Amino acid sequence: MGERLQKFMASAGVASRRASEKLIEEGRVTVNGIVATLGMSVEEGDKVLLDGRPLQAEQKRIVILFYKPRGVICSSIDPEGRRTVQDFFAEIPERLYNIGRLDLNSEGLLLMTNDGDLCNKMTHPKFKVEKTYYAVCDGKLTAQQRAQLINGVMLEDGMTAPARINYTTTNQKGDTGISITIHEGRNRQIRRMLEAVGHRTLRLKREGYGPLTLGELKSGEWRYLTDKEVDALLRSAKQ
Q: Residue 152: its pLDDT value, please?
């Protein structure tokens, strides 16, 4: 079923519905080569022109919060045939991009969107959007090593910005669980930071992105963000 032409024009950002009706009455709009009239509906694929210029309905912004499982890569195609994040969204017709990446062996919160501008803003270093990770590393993390992570450690691509350690725990094997928040997005950054202070990462899960958390989502599940959540996400990008 189609939609009223004036509604289509409003969604294309031409003008309000009332103003669009006036444009139709003035004979400035054609649908498939025919001068439009009030009350006309348009279907997907119809060619709508205003003063000879084509109109397209504004694309609805989609932002998805996804719990990426381990063993899934952040790519559209994998030559090795491994499962990709795109495989989870085959039923969505819009082209989705992952905002940032999680490596093959990492899991947790990954945002997917069809909004290229949002994707660029969330990943640009100058906006300093905070990401919180839970990592398990081998052995005991000493007070000195904690201080190094907090103050910044030297990696091959330069010193890391200060991090925030929310808590640490020790399991029965003597390995350390650590919740750490950073605002940079370097490749495999948490793993490299822990390696720089002498520890191997056994498990890595992103639990928070800006104001967002995984909540009740289980591995492989996803949900759409609300407009309020997207607004909060944008506000978390420090100008």
A: 97
Using the predicted structure, report yes or no on whether residue 3 has a pLDDT greater than 70: yes
C-alpha 83/C-alpha 220 separation (Å) is: 12
Q: Is 157 a residue of the active site?
A: no
Candidates 103, 138, 157, 231; catalytic one = 103
Regarding whether 75 and 27 lie in a shared domain, the answer is: no
Give the rounded percent of residues in the chain with a pLDDT score beyond 70. Answer: 97
Report the CATH number that the domain containing residue 144 is assigned in CATH. 3.30.2350.10
Tell me: do 138 and 195 sit in the same domain: yes
Q: How many domains does the chain have?
A: 2
pLDDT of residue 40: 92
Q: What is the pLDDT of residues 38-64, one digit of tens each?
A: 989 998 889 999 999 998 776 788 999
pTM: predicted TM-score of the whole model, two decimal places: 0.77
Tell me which residue range forms the domain holding 8. 3-54
Distance CA 58, CA 229 (A): 21
Same domain membership, residue 77 and residue 14: no
- DSSP per residue over 80-136, as a string? T---BGGGGGTT--S--EEES---TT-EEEEEEES-HHHHHHHH-GGG---EEEEEE
What is the spatial distance between Cα 206 and Cα 67, in angstroms, rounded to a whole number? 9
